[in-house]
Amino acid sequence: xxxxxxxxxxxxxxxxxxxxxxxILNGLKVTLIVTFFAMIMGSILGVTTxxxxxxxxxxxxxxxxxxxxxxRGTPVVIQLVILYFIILASFDVNKITAAIIAFGLNSGAYxxxxxxAGIQAVDKGQTEAARSLGLSQWATMKEVILPQAIKNIxxxxxxxxxxxxxxxxxxxxxxxxxxxxxxxxxxxxTFEDSIPLFTxxxxxxxxxxxxxxxxxxxxxxxxxxx
Length: 226
Description:
The chain is an all-alpha fold. It has a single domain, classed as MetI-like fold. The protein is built from nine helices and no strands. Helix 2 runs antiparallel to helix 8 and helix 3 crosses helix 5. The longest helix has 38 residues. The radius of gyration is 21 Å and the shape is flat. The N terminus is likely disordered.
């Protein structure tokens, strides 16, 4: 589909404006898909990595520490390029799937640190009380600590989602047509810089505003439930 879009730009299929709108909408769809599924993957990885890092077993916390250090110490665009052109080169993986995996791995490391900070912020008396009632360490973490931690770190998770949304603008480095890449294609076709780039910027701004507004409303509801 992406190859067909790129080819269609150079065939007389109709009005350039309609092609531009189609590219922008398709790029927006790709951006949202990658962001949504990468955030889900990152959340699962984040929780798993946090539990591994907090384990007393070296064969669990060492790999988790290495994973977090490598991901946080390298730019996401390099991770994306290495994953697609080297690690997944021998597999039949499309660009969107590769982007979801790359951004999910990247987000997982940061979410892990966010969750770890949230867990450490929960009063230790909560753990002691749960254990005194006969709950296992895993049950204490699952039923008592994690719900409180997630509630405390919700604003940080929301910020991570917004950062992830903006980071997907580098999908074009592996040939994916996301929102930013769509703007670049329109710019190269029309030789007009301002309109495509400002359009992309305004869409990103609108999306971040909407997600920030939704998050703030959700936080207010949580406070009311307290």
